[in-house]
Write a structure and sequence with these properties.
The protein is α+β, with helices and mostly antiparallel strands. 33% of the residues lie in helices and 26% in strands.
């Protein structure tokens, strides 16, 4: 959506295909980072954008074996919004779509799923798609695949995927927020259990982290034990977890970290999770995807004006965006393998003494929290609107 909007804003004819009839999906990746908020400012949309319902977080706290400390500080970033905004992704997409439709050269086709690529003269020349009206094709000088971690188009393109084989999955569920709920931390760790808790206004979005492939064993143990494990991490949820009354209310997210060796073919480019699938750690996936879109539009718009979209230009987009994605992926892989090591660690003491060495270093040196805030909030190479 961002790539299509920015290209249409530059006067380039764009068709965006969205396979669903609306954007009302439970994306879970609902964090809008300072880098993305800065882009909204550069577009002149920030004030209007922040009128949408959202919550703001200027620092990230972790409760580890009963000790709560700040791991990430956004308060000194050189941007207008020194916080993460938690906003449903459907609101973000609808906001962008509404503004993109004001561009005469933009067309959004809802309920239209891209299924295959059109090949012609040794290059990609469009996509084959399907809607309620039947099959059709869209011809294009360039196809941008932004269809996620299970991208159909990158599969049809035959691009090589390198998988990091991370050891975790996530169980997502909703827990009602009681009026007496304290200000919660973002993450909870205790006795080998891990949970993320996102404040969504009138409810908490709970991400319970499990060993990959472990969901069936958790189901066999039963809902009472699952609820008890959540309460063991966040006791203030004791009166609310009974709302999880059926396993249908618990959704499995199979976590993947992978990347393409090459993001492009003649007439074809992958961005976002299609090019580099991210884990939920840090909530960076949507923001890296937006950064990819901005970098692509910045380089593609003048090339369209010249009429020269060659593969060397697509290669330069990958070169610009690959290092930031690989760096974040390396950080995510390190964190996940620390969560579930091949050899289980002995139980840790409670309180500050039980913190692992990296956490104790962050606790002792506050400036490190600002460095982490910079990496999560802005990334290695923040892009700007041209």
């Amino acid at each position: 959506m961002m790539a299509g909007f920015l290209l249409a804003r530059a006067g380039i004819e764009v068709v965006v295909l969205e396979k669903h009839a609306d954007f009302f999906r439970d994306f879970r990746g609902d964090t809008i980072h300072p880098s993305t908020l800065e882009l909204m400012h550069e577009l002149g949309f920030l004030e209007e954008f922040l009128k949408l319902p959202h919550q703001e977080m200027s620092e990230i706290q972790l409760t580890f074996e009963g000790a709560t400390f700040t791991t990430t500080d956004f308060s000194r970033l050189p941007v207008r919004c020194k916080f993460i905004a938690f906003m449903p992704q459907w609101d973000f997409l609808n906001f962008l779509a509404e503004r993109a439709r004001r561009c005469p050269s933009f067309r959004l086709m809802m309920g239209a799923e891209a299924l295959d690529l059109v090949r012609e003269g040794g290059r990609i020349a469009g996509v084959k798609a399907r809607s309620a009206e039947g099959d059709f094709a869209v011809r294009a000088d360039l196809v941008i695949a932004a269809d996620g971690r299970s991208s159909i188009l990158r599969e049809r393109a035959g691009l090589e995927v390198m998988d990091a084989n991370v050891p975790i999955d996530v169980l997502w569920t909703r827990i009602p927020k009681e009026q007496a709920s304290p200000r919660q931390t973002l993450g909870y760790v205790e006795n080998g259990r891990f949970m993320v808790l996102l404040d969504r206004g009138d409810y908490f979005q709970c991400g319970y982290i499990i060993r990959k492939g472990g969901f069936e064993a958790i189901r066999r143990a039963g809902l009472p034990e699952f609820r008890a494990n959540i309460v063991g991490l966040a006791p203030f949820l004791r009166g609310a977890v009974d709302a999880i009354s059926d396993w249908d209310e618990v959704k499995l997210l199979t976590v993947k970290i992978d990347r393409l060796r090459r993001w492009h073919l003649p007439g074809f480019l992958c961005i976002g999770d299609s090019a580099h699938a991210m884990s939920p750690a840090g909530g960076v996936g949507i923001n890296l995807a937006v950064q990819d879109a901005v970098a692509a539009a910045n380089l593609l718009a003048p090339a369209f004006e010249r009429g020269t979209i060659d593969e060397s230009l697509l290669r330069s987009i990958q070169r610009r965006r690959e290092l930031p994605a690989r760096l974040i992926q390396a950080m995510q892989i390190f964190v996940h393998r620390r969560m579930f090591p091949a050899v289980p660690r002995p139980a840790r003491p409670s309180g500050r003494q039980g913190l692992p060495l990296p956490a104790r270093v962050i606790w002792a040196f506050p400036f490190l929290r600002r460095i982490i805030g910079r990496m999560i909030g802005m990334g290695l190479r923040p892009e700007h609107i041209r």
